[in-house]
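re: that chain from earlier
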Amino acid sequence: MRIGLDYDDLIVDYARALLKYYNDRYPKRRKQLKHLEAYNLQTILDFSTREQYLSFLSDFERSRERKKIKAIKGANQGVLDLHSKSHELFLITDSGIELYDRINERLRLRFPNCFSKIFFTRLYLESYTPKDEICERENIELMCDDNPEVIYKCAARNIKGLIFSRPWNINFDPISQDLTQRVDSWEEIVNHSWLS
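^ sequence. v structure.
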């Protein structure tokens, strides 16, 4: 099966790294993972303008926390297991294109020859290509992501989606059990009935 995998908050623990950086930088506005109840971080992190928020994200992308980001529990073995079961894997990420070398190096070291292609959506740029469009163009049959909007848009294109449980998608409502389902761990992804 051709499988699309998100990078941030599916393979690496982006939210925890971001919060560590945020809490160190703004100690009077401390946040915990449980506070991230929606996908709109600008509002949750108390940035009054989009420019302030994007500047913060830009600084984070160059930070030590981002460079030393840790894997989600089970992700490293999960990717290897999917590849060993002869699934064709595609990384589809909203991470900034400036991180291409760093992400590519991480994938090469941890998952040699596991990914057929890496796609950067170019989020926040005029040349943005949504993940569902990439999935359709590349004939991807299953997308795994933490963003409900991605899963819903893939389902609208008849592409199956597994939503990886995170605090901001707790209210995700599968529109069709045949197309969208929730998973709580990498073990559940690897052993999901759609991948048999």
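Residues 14-67 form one domain.
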